[in-house]
Design a protein that fits this description.
With 202 residues, this protein is mainly alpha-helical. The protein has one domain. It is built from eight helices and four strands, in the order H-E-E-H-H-H-E-H-E-H-H-H. Strand 1 and strand 2 form a beta hairpin. Helix 1 packs antiparallel against helix 4 and helix 5 packs across helix 7. The longest helix has 39 residues. The chain is globular.
Length: 202
């Protein structure tokens, strides 16, 4: 069943997109020196490309290519980091890549996806085309669901503490986010994300 947004949410979605455009432009400009430094370090410490580009499901299941700093070794399989045991993740990740993940710096290039309109700063995390079909099916069983809105760099399910294996809880919190979506909700998620990053809980 297709979800119908409230009038307030429809208005907010317009302002949300405007904020995403302005925020991503400023974010890219402000973070560009850091991103250049990160790119240089990656080339120096690890063989392979600087960026990791992967197909993901976006709004209305539209497929787009997400861009991140590469954190895993070039021969690592395409598996969501949240579906790996800690030991396997460490084995597949080079040392500087591990730092990028812990600090979420690897997500900075996502701002180009936000500027393009594939993503938003806040929204359900985009699921993989491969290896996360189970998550897609569970999400689609909810109304509303994660695919009713643009996916985000950070999400309600992440700050609620369910960034890992439980697809049912992810889908549940994604659905709750769409129902509650507002400026206040996004404001809380944004600052909770910053808190978790610095407290090393993300």
């Amino acid at each position: 069943m297709k979800y119908t947004f409230t009038k307030r949410q429809k208005v907010y979605l317009v302002f949300k997109r405007i904020f995403d455009i302005i925020g991503s432009i400023f974010g890219i400009i402000l973070c560009s020196p850091l991103m250049v430094v990160v790119a240089i370090i990656i080339k120096c410490v690890s063989k392979g490309p600087v960026f990791f580009i992967q197909k993901r499901y976006g709004k209305n299941l539209k497929i787009f290519k997400i861009i991140k700093f590469r954190t895993m070794k070039v021969d690592a399989p395409e598996v969501s980091q949240f579906n790996l045991d800690y030991e396997d993740e460490i084995a597949m990740t080079y040392k500087f890549g591990e730092f990028l993940r812990k600090t979420s710096i690897d997500e900075l290039p996502n701002m180009f996806n936000v500027l393009k309109g594939d993503m938003s700063f806040i929204g359900p995390r985009p699921s993989l085309i491969r290896n996360e079909e189970a998550l897609k099916e569970i999400r689609l069983s909810y109304t509303p669901n994660a695919y009713d809105v643009l996916p985000g760099i950070t999400s309600y399910s992440i700050v609620k503490g369910y960034r890992s294996h439980d697809y049912e809880l992810k889908a549940k919190f994604d659905s709750e986010y769409v129902k509650k979506m507002s400026f206040i909700t996004d404001f809380k998620i944004f600052f909770m994300t910053i808190y978790y990053i610095f407290s090393k809980k993300v």
